[in-house]
């Protein structure tokens, strides 16, 4: 019997886009024009000098206008995918294309304490508990420190954050530092853990998140970090923060153009400094200032999707943002905004997706909220799986065997396959009587219980004592 | 108060040309410039309230402030000495190490619109500069802004410096910025914390 078929196993998984190829191209050309016509202000002489030497036009001391050819060349040498390892040097994340990895955010000033329900200033112990939780959660792939510790010397708070992350999880780290010196210390600490500078470069498990003032105005500290990290071949995210209606035009396209011109300027600089250096661009765009409340909304629908499309067009890995909310508490708005933003980023294919669990536009964190996000991610994981239509999965012989009046409940085939479907962890599907019997709890209460259970049971793999000691010495030194 | 209802409407609508026209008409009609000014300030008070209640958007508030400014310019030559409704002088700045200024600028515009005189020291302002300006301008208010947790401590330095210089009792100290809180204001010995530009004006008026 002939068994030759063409196009048998085309597996599709859900995906979405907002911008067409042509729209991306138009945006790209707009960025190129901004770079040639308006240019960027770079507040670091070493950066200006590199551009001058490479043939860019420099005026007024630090206004740099970049010819399109330099951008094209940079896009040709930058890696399209970055390999991230975990703390033990095992391959962990292939950051690029449509692969999505999810992680927390950093530096929330407050925590909605799950034990008291109160909003209070965050402390170092909150980071320790946060990292323990992240280490245990199945759908958190990397960590950021979650909280800003108010109980440590503030001029070294970023070193304490790095130390806490290194000690309480083996998952990859994205770190933030207030100044350039903190970035150097963070790298030193990571190199100690990796076993040396070469080892860290070959198996990077930590990346620095660099915030840049706006697309066309690059602060000194951001440029210093870019030069240092690209020089060492270490990955970083370069994120200008133009705000529509304030430091960029109100229109989404205008904000995207201004911000991404800055991204491309940073990209060129990284390749001029060290050809082939890894570079990660923003996976969100079209930031705006909320004109009623003057807050910067994280879950704004207008900033989702198009930046990921643009990054795919350029071929660059993205640092994206999802699982976050403007809500001041762990309520319905928090779940809705977290789910909506996680859904869009998963569909579009953001790569390193951070700020999962954020409340109050990044000013408050919550451990139970993170657990709810982990559940949402579990759902999304199941949803995004392609469906296999094949002889095996169609099981036509079985259908004929069971016939119109038979049933499948106690059939071995059902026994074999029922676990392939998604089952909730903390979303509840019980009937009403059963739910009442279990205590009539809501999602927030169940999430809080899960936090307590994980904190009681889970022990992350510690650093070897001599390594932990050497890491701590960097803080003191 | 129908006499100035049109003016109030023009300020609320953020229409500088209409405000100037009405001010001119008023002056040529023989209206008291101080009364016209007071009506404009009253309108800006409403703008501040609406802003705080999230009923007006920032761009609308700024257009009103622009309209106010246009009217004030026109009225200035006609105002009697001290009749400008000067509620006091505010010295304002973003503290040393901090370059963020959008919030501060909003406060400045609204305070001027409400009849305060504002000395804007800009950004990255050292404690000494605050002191000098307070003395030079006989300020009754000091406003400090910080967006970074790393620059917030400078606010305490300024409060302490005011105490050491014997100026603390002369002024009311207002602080603001995303990481700042009521508790922090109390902790460092400031007089009040404003969560946004709209509330800053309301608080400033209640303090002087």
Helix content of chain B: 40-55%
CATH topology of the largest domain in chain B: Rossmann fold
Our count of helices of chain A gives 18
Sheet bearing the most strands of chain B, described?
5 strands, parallel
- In the CATH hierarchy, what is the architecture of the largest domain in chain A at level 2? Alpha-Beta Barrel
Overall tally of domains of chain B = 2
Strand content of chain B: 5-15%
| Largest two-chain interface | A-B, 13 and 16 residues
Number of strands of chain A: 17
N-to-C terminal Cα separation of chain B, in Å? 27 Å
Spatial ordering of strands, largest sheet of chain A? 2-3-1-11
Radius of gyration of chain B: 18 Å
| Termini separation of chain A | 76 Å
Rounded to an integer in angstroms, the radius of gyration calculated over CA atoms of chain A is: 24 Å
Label the overall shape of chain A. Answer: globular
Q: Can you say what the CATH homologous superfamily of the largest domain in chain A is?
A: Trimethylamine methyltransferase-like
Write down how many β-strands of chain B occur, each being a DSSP E stretch of 2 or more residues.
5
């Amino acid at each position: 019997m002939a068994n030759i078929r063409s196009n048998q196993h085309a597996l599709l998984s859900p995906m979405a886009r907002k911008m067409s190829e042509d729209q991306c191209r138009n945006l790209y050309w707009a960025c190129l024009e901004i770079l040639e016509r308006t240019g960027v202000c770079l507040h670091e002489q070493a950066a200006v000098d590199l551009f001058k030497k490479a043939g860019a036009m420099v005026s007024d001391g630090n206004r740099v206008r970049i010819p399109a050819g330099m951008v094209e060349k940079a896009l040709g040498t930058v890696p399209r995918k970055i390999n991230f390892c975990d703390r033990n040097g095992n391959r962990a994340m292939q950051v690029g294309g449509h692969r999505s990895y999810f992680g927390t955010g950093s530096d929330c000033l407050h925590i909605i304490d799950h034990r008291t329900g109160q909003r209070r200033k965050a402390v170092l112990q909150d980071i320790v508990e946060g990292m323990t939780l992240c280490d245990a959660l199945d759908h958190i792939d990397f960590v950021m420190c979650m909280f800003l510790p108010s109980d440590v010397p503030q001029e070294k708070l970023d070193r304490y954050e790095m130390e806490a992350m290194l000690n309480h999880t083996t998952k990859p780290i994205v770190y933030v530092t207030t100044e350039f010196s903190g970035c150097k210390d963070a790298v030193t600490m990571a190199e100690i853990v990796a076993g040396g500078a070469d080892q860290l470069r070959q198996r990077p498990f930590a990346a620095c998140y660099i915030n840049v003032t706006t697309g066309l105005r690059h602060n000194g500290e951001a440029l210093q970090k870019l030069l240092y990290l690209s020089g060492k071949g270490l990955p970083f995210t370069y994120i200008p923060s133009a705000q529509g209606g304030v430091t960029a035009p109100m229109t989404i396209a205008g904000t995207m153009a201004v911000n991404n011109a800055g991204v491309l300027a940073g990209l060129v600089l990284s390749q001029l400094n060290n050809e082939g250096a890894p570079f990660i661009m923003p996976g969100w765009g079209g930031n705006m200032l909320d004109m009623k409340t003057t807050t910067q909304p994280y879950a704004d629908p207008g900033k989702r999707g198009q930046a990921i499309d643009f990054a795919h067009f350029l071929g660059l890995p993205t640092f994206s943002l999802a699982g976050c909310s403007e809500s001041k508490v762990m309520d319905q708005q928090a779940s809705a905004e977290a789910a909506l933003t996680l859904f869009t980023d998963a569909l579009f294919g953001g790569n390193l997706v951070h700020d999962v669990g954020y409340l109050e536009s990044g000013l408050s964190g919550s451990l139970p909220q993170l657990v709810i996000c982990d559940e949402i991610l579990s759902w999304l994981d199941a949803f995004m799986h392609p469906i296999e239509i094949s002889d095996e999965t169609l099981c036509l012989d079985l259908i004929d065997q069971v016939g119109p009046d038979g049933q499948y409940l106690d059939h071995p085939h059902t026994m074999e396959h029922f676990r392939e479907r998604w089952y909730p962890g903390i979303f509840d599907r019980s009937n009403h009587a059963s739910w009442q019997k279990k205590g009539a709890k809501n999602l927030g209460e169940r999430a809080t219980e899960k936090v307590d259970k994980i904190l009681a049971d889970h022990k992350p793999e510690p650093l070897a004592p001599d390594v932990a000691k050497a890491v701590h010495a960097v803080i003191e030194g | 108060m129908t006499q100035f209802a049109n003016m109030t409407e023009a300020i609320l609508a953020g229409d500088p040309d209409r405000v100037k026209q009405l001010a001119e008409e008023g002056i040529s009609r023989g209206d008291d410039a101080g009364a016209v000014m007071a009506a404009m300030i009253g309108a800006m008070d409403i703008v501040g309230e609406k802003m705080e209640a999230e009923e007006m958007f920032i761009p609308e508030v700024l257009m009103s402030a622009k309209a106010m400014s246009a009217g004030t310019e026109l009225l200035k030559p006609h105002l009697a000495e001290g009749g400008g409704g000067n509620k006091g002088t505010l010295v304002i700045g973003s503290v040393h190490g901090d370059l963020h200024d959008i919030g501060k600028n909003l406060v400045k515009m609204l305070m001027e619109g409400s009849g305060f005189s504002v000395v804007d020291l800009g950004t990255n302002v050292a404690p000494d500069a605050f002191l000098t300006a307070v003395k030079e301008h006989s300020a009754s208010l000091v406003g400090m802004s910080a967006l970074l947790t790393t620059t917030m401590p400078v606010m305490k330095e300024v409060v302490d410096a005011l105490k050491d210089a014997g100026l603390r009792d002369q002024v009311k100290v207002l602080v603001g910025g995303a990481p700042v809180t009521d508790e922090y204001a109390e902790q460092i010995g400031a007089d009040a914390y404003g969560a946004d530009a709209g509330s800053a004006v309301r608080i400033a008026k209640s303090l002087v």
